[in-house]
Amino acid sequence: MLWTLVFAPIILFLLWDILRPDPPPVDGVYRLPGRCYYLKKYSFFLLLWLRKNRSQKRSVKGHVTEDHVSRGYGMSTSDPLQLEQCHDLEDDPHALDSAYFAGFGKDGTRIALRVARRHGREAEVWVLLEVPGLGFYQHPVHPDTCFYNTDGVSFTAGGVKLQLLEPLRRWKVSFSGMLRHGLCNTLDAKPDKYAHVKMTFIWEAVCDPFNFDVDLEMTSLADGIAKEKWSREFWSRLQRMHQTHYEQWGEMWGKICIEGHEERNVRLKSIRDHSFGVRDWRLFYRYMVHYIFVEETGIMAMVSVVSQPVNMSHIKPGYLVYANGETVGVSSNNLKIWDHTRSKEPDNNYSFSFTAGGEQFHVEVEGGSTPVLYHHADRGSKIFERFCKYKVNGEKAIGLVEFHYRNPEGPPYATLEKSVPLLSEPELTDTDREMVNLTLDFRTKSCGSSLLVGGKGAQLALLTSIQDKINAVVPRGFCVTLSAFEKQVQEQNELDRSIQVLTAAVRSKDFSNLPGICSDVVEQFASLSICSSVHAAILSQLLETFEDGYQNVMLAVRSSAADEDHGDASSAGQMETYLGVKGQAEVFEAVRKCWASAYSYQAVEYRRQHGQPIKTCVGVVIQEMVQSEIAGVMFTHDPVTANQNIMVIDAAYGLGEVVVSGKTVPDTIRVEHPWEGELKIIEKSVGAKSLQVNASDSGHGVQEVTVHKDSADTCCLTDLQIVHLCHIGIKIEQYYGNARDIEWAIKSDTVYILQARPITTLDQETDEELVHEFDTPVVSDSERLIQGNIGEMMPGCVTPLTMTTFARAINDATSMYITNMGGNYHVRNTNRFVQACCGQLFLNLTIIGQHSLSSLIGQKEAMEMNLVGAVLDDHKLSMIMTYGRKPKSLLLRIYHFIKCLKHDNEASRVADLWAEKLDHYSVGQNCDNASDLYQAIDSQLPDYYDVWTTTLVKSARSGIWGQVVMGIVSGGKPEWTVDNYADVALLLSKCGGVYSAEVPTAMQDLAKSIFNNGIAEDFLTMTNKECVQFLTSEECPQEVRHKYGTFIKRHGHRCIREAEFITKSWKREPENLIHILKTILKTKAYEHEQQEGISIKETMSKLKSPVSFFGRFLLKKFIVHKACKAVGEREWGKSTAIKMVDKFKEAYWKLAELMVLEGRLPEVELLFFLTQEEIGKLIQTRSAKLIAKSVRRRKIFHLQEEIQFPKMTVGIPVPIKKDDQQNERKTKFTFKGMPVSQGSVKGHARVVLSLEEANKIQKGEILIVCYTDVGWSPYFPLISGLVTEMGGLISHGAVVAREYGLPCIVNVPQATHLIQSGDLVHIDCSLGLIHKLEDQTVENQDIVGEE
Q1: For 903, phi and psi rounded to 5 degrees?
Q2: pLDDT of residue 535
Q3: How many CB atoms lie within 10 A of CB 211?
Q4: Where is the Pyruvate phosphate dikinase AMP/ATP-binding domain (predicted)?
Q5: 1272-1310 residue pLDDT tens
Q6: What is the pLDDT of residues 392-411, one digit of tens each?
Q7: For a tag site, which of 269, 486, 737, 1109 has the least CB within 10 Å?
Q8: Contact of 1002 with 1254, CB cutoff 8 Å
Q9: Is the link from the previous residue into 974 a cis peptide, with omega within 30 of 0?
């Protein structure tokens, strides 16, 4: 009976579900739940869940596949690079690979850019821009979107370039070209007002991607599938027409430059997507997709309805991202697409609701500018890209809504355009590789390979293959191959030995002798005869190419290096060209000189500075010289502004040598090349052209001739010639698919093409872009960013290598720790906890607060005290909590707390194991080449992350115990008084034996030993290097030698800025330690005796706070001991982490030296100005661009170091202006900070901004600094008090000051700017005040620093 009651309703429900009729589709399109809906929905839900679970397990096990068949609902690759890379297009006519970026600012700036790669070198391009006060700009081809002759391999088309910098983290987004001013949605009568617009942005993620294959709310997908009629064909279509699509929110920052207007710096909230697979736009009937950013709370959402009748006629995908990065699916929305899209244009204003993360959101939509875009040659797809204002639950929001309409009425394109075949180097067959051709004619297909003939020769061969199609002539010629060069070197042993000597000189950094060695190699190449086999091959090829009269043909003989004229660096002008060569004797001489020019000092130094191999092979181009009347160069894009719609021609009389060598001022012509319409000459600048180079009257060589004034004063090209040249340039660019730098010549109205290399300077970053290169976004302007805590650990500017390893390690460690405490989702692909601006690091207090307050023991006041050293009244709890989901239930938080305790114990155990392991740990110790060592470092980086994770646990534990002490001292009150701080500092002064205090004590002990052994005077006269040698030699007294060795063994991994990879530890560079020892000896700081600690009983008697009897009992018997132990563990844990850092420092410095030895880097220091990923790419590709970038980064690094920020900022950090600091200085005033030690002292201030200035400290002065780390240790015995801008109760300065009994106040903003060295100051730790005195009084002074 019971079972009947249970199963009867279920059976009846299933019968009803199976037998009920299918309702008619709405508007004949949108299917509604019908027969078997629930049965299909829950069956598919179960299958989807099983598939997703299996895919996740495979991903965890590392089973990753690139096969597109393995993609689909419920499964996808988890590898970031596989997701983000440009994908090979599938074997389907509608295959695509699409990247889209949209951004919107509070000021009304809006942008949408898209490039979708298609078969046949075609692409769909969107460029939409709205600028407040200036209006709307769009691509001149719009509303059409089809583009042709793309490079076929990147997201580059129509002036747009979308460049991946780091998978799922950073992209570079840029556009340069002409845009139409004014919104145009018609196919005719388009506005004719244009402006050159250049936009460059860095896009950075603020959350993980939402992958619709695996992250879509399963109930939503099951609902969409269940409405359809199932059949074998239905499932086949789903698989065959599938596209992987993921979206990610972030921020775009950069510049917009519009012709005739001031450039604008903008920060835009941004959504991007990436789709790859199959998409025929015409299969969508309708869709509406809302992208929403809520300004106040930072909530980001996508809510949509999609109708694709052949697959799913009515599905409602969506998601919501909280400001903390946590993403939840949209479980439902009440949008009825048919109500908003029945008319020819979608509704402008409407409202809807949706549910996500258990919360209800009501959205009001107010439409704005709405450009229209068509897809396909029949214009069968119509997009309405509407920028909007929203209100979400009454709060302002910005974004856009994208509508799609199937558009069967077209009209189709009047004429269909097709791309020309891509001109690229041929793939070499095994036969090509095995054959040793010493010469190759331009007409030979394999001559188009730079691997055989070098860069210049390969380009001429490729141009020869299309000369009939571009209406120009490539002068006949051939290449002496790289194999011929190798043959010459092999058979002339002296050459091989000389090259080896040269290579050895570069490796040994014998730069002073390098010019002489290069000169010797050049002389040998030029003087030694060409070996017989190469000699015969050249003679034979001369006859074949130029026939019997070759002796009378005037030739140009040019070098063609293996690494020349490619996209990374052109190497232009580094090697020789010989003109007017006639007769075989001159040809052979010119060939030898071309070979020799590859080893000139200029060419060798170029290769060394660009990380290219010193030993290189050189081909030689032998080509008929055009005795031109006019010649020059043509850039198909403006090389300065990168404007794709401007072509630039430099022209002069005679041979082009006069232009490329800069011997005269040529005519410069600028031509507008609009996306639609005719070429237009917009500027002619007539140069002096006082000189021209012609073939010599003797018939051999060339001569310089003065140009007659009448000719010099007129443009050497007619308008017809200019337009003809430009049409040729356009065709050449179409074949290559990118911008070209073309050398040309004209003789008797025939245009000759002499070279066409890529323009390598179009994407170069500005200095300002490099300064902000690694900036991270804030989601809302309410976020608090602080430099305290992390600024103490890593002050100032950090190198790119440290930025992308250390900063990421601390970020991930913080995220995982807080998540384990019961905080929210761990965001993997963005730094939300540790952020950066201008190369400096910050902690995001708001994000940390939101996560930690979701845990059982999280308290806003305690969190702020630990990280800032003060309670921030304006950092409202209500605002913090909007940054994530509603707090978990009490039971769930208790569960996470217990789980966290277990995790903490495990992490502490692992930390102790690492402390033991590190004595014998090494990174790539046995690697003897750069590639192997890099792989070793990369594979062991998880260990580096692991140590920082366990270190953070120990650091957090000390903070929790400090919080417990404060809770008892304050009686549990949320407001903490100065007495409370002072009492906690007094109690923590019982932390004897803290590792950080060992360092200065050990230094003093070593210095004292040097003095006691009577060698101090000699020690001070030696150089630092001599001191190091002395301390490890038999001449050094055994006691001193032993103490030095013990110090290095225990503390040698420490140094200033010790987490920075470029900074060598005392063990690696002991000269820095010697400098400190000398300071201790000079100031006799070794005589300082540490104060003996007072008993716990005495300590308790000195407490000013009214602590209860039970509280005193707990403090005395248990809690103070535990808190002090935690402080000690924190300092020891940090030492362990720094020891691991030192292991990796050693590996990175070794890697840098190997890369210099292998010729991959010109200087070891440059390695630290590359990211971890860039180092790997450089080893793999020898990218000259990466080396140039590292050089520029190092240059601007010193500018970044001078930038100073406030201790705390709201929103994007803004640097402090020095003038503002000067104006804030007063004659007398009082600072307020956090007392972390006991006592009171009056004395003269010593303001020290860097450790290099520390030698100015005099005994008895009060030290005013930004922070202290272990490098400041020897100066504690000298000073009488300490004030720091950063820090808290357990910061380094606080811990060591308590050990030395020094009055110390931390968390004093701008102390180093408002106090000057020599000022009389008074520190009063009982009140937490620092008085700047005019005389001996302290009354009636302004208090600075009150929160």
Answers
A1: -65, -40
A2: 96
A3: 19
A4: 452-771
A5: 776 787 888 999 887 777 677 777 787 777 888 888 888
A6: 999 999 999 999 999 999 89
A7: 1109
A8: no
A9: no
